[in-house]
From TrEMBL:
The keyword Oxidoreductase applies. Its EC number is 1.1.-.-. Residues 3-162 form the 6-phosphogluconate dehydrogenase NADP-binding domain. Residues 168-288 form the 3-hydroxyisobutyrate dehydrogenase-like NAD-binding domain. InterPro entries: 6-PGluconate_DH-like_C_sf (IPR008927), 6PGD_dom2 (IPR013328), 6PGDH_NADP-bd (IPR006115), HIBADH-like_NADP-bd (IPR029154), HIBADH-related (IPR015815), NAD(P)-bd_dom_sf (IPR036291). It is an enzyme of class 1 (oxidoreductase). Keywords: NAD, Oxidoreductase. It comes from Aquibium pacificus. This is NAD(P)-dependent oxidoreductase. GO terms for molecular function: oxidoreductase activity. Pfam families: NAD_binding_11, NAD_binding_2. Signal peptide: none annotated. It comes from the Bacteria.
């Protein structure tokens, strides 16, 4: 089996790497927090690399799960001389981060020079589905052979892999999906703010939406359980959702297609981010928009 190197042992990386080991791939971990990487490797039965060079020497396929595409580029091309320079020609990079699709498309040719294949494969499902190994994965690639090579690794972490098109298309689809989710949440939030001002019971309003045409993911899974209860604990941070909406808005700009809803949704979430910070749960944005806190 191919040797897997994994860079980025955060909230998602921990369960994803555990599932890679369960699928019996030889796994080496690397994280900027070397102590955390060593502890996690010992817990799941993997190896921890002390440097990117050590990770590169131990890997045929590298998976990155990092905060953004800029850091992925730094890891591959700049940090400690660049991980790409430490990999053997024929190695494969799978970027599972929420990265900018234009940046991913531009990174591909830079990796092709030293003979490194590259596919983008961001995920949907957050931590609970990462633990269960049931992530939905969006796979972008310019080479069908690379897609086929990546799929056994991806299916150790998810149960559905969608081929989305050329390199960068997976990252584009991830951002667009989360933009739609964020716009839906914002629409429900506005409706409930207005409902409350008019004297309607927000709980009844959500119940009506859930059996009517206003039903969406947020009415079914977020507002009743987390917003109206004051729980605000979906497990998905405001900063992460705001970042994905920003990527979608940036894509509209890059494609010279200035669409109004994505721009306004981006402005709406950036306002909540500026007021509450990125570490709070995304559902807490309702409080910022409603003038609370």
């Amino acid at each position: 089996m191919e040797r897997i190197g994994f860079v980025g042992i955060g909230n998602m990386g921990r369960p994803m790497t555990a599932n890679i080991v369960k699928s019996r791939f030889p796994l080496t971990l690397y994280d900027a927090n070397a102590e955390a990487a060593r502890a996690h490797a010992a817990e799941i039965g993997a190896n921890a690399a002390a440097s990117l060079a050590e990770l590169g020497a131990a890997s045929d396929v590298v998976v990155t799960m990092l905060p953004n595409g800029k850091i992925v580029r730094e890891v591959m091309l700049e940090a400690d001389g660049g991980l790409a320079s430490q990999l053997k020609p024929g190695a494969l990079l799978i970027d599972m981060s929420s990265s900018d699709p234009i940046g991913s498309r531009d990174l591909g040719p830079l990796l092709a020079g030293p003979g490194i294949g590259f596919v983008d494969a961001p995920v949907s499902g957050a931590v609970p589905r990462a633990i269960a190994g049931t992530l939905t994965i969006m796979l972008g690639s310019d080479d069908p052979a690379l897609s086929q090579r990546a799929k056994p690794v991806l299916l150790s972490m998810g149960n559905r892999v969608f081929d989305t098109g050329p390199l960068g298309s997976g990252h584009a689809m991830k951002a667009l999906n989360n933009f739609v989710a964020a716009a839906g949440f914002a629409a429900v939030a506005e409706a409930l703010i207005l409902a409350g001002r008019f004297g309607l019971d927000p709980k009844v309003a959500v119940e009506i939406m859930n059996v009517s045409t206003g039903r969406n993911f947020s009415t079914e899974n977020v507002f009743g359980q987390h917003v109206l209860t004051g729980d605000f604990a979906t497990g998905f941070a405001l900063g992460l959702l705001a970042k994905d909406v920003g990527i979608a808005a940036g894509l509209a700009t890059a494609l010279d297609k200035p669409l109004p809803i994505v721009a306004e949704t981006d402005r709406w979430w950036q306002a909540a981010l500026g007021r509450l910070g990125g570490t709070v749960d995304h559902s807490a944005a309702f409080k910022a928009w409603n003038g609370e806190g």
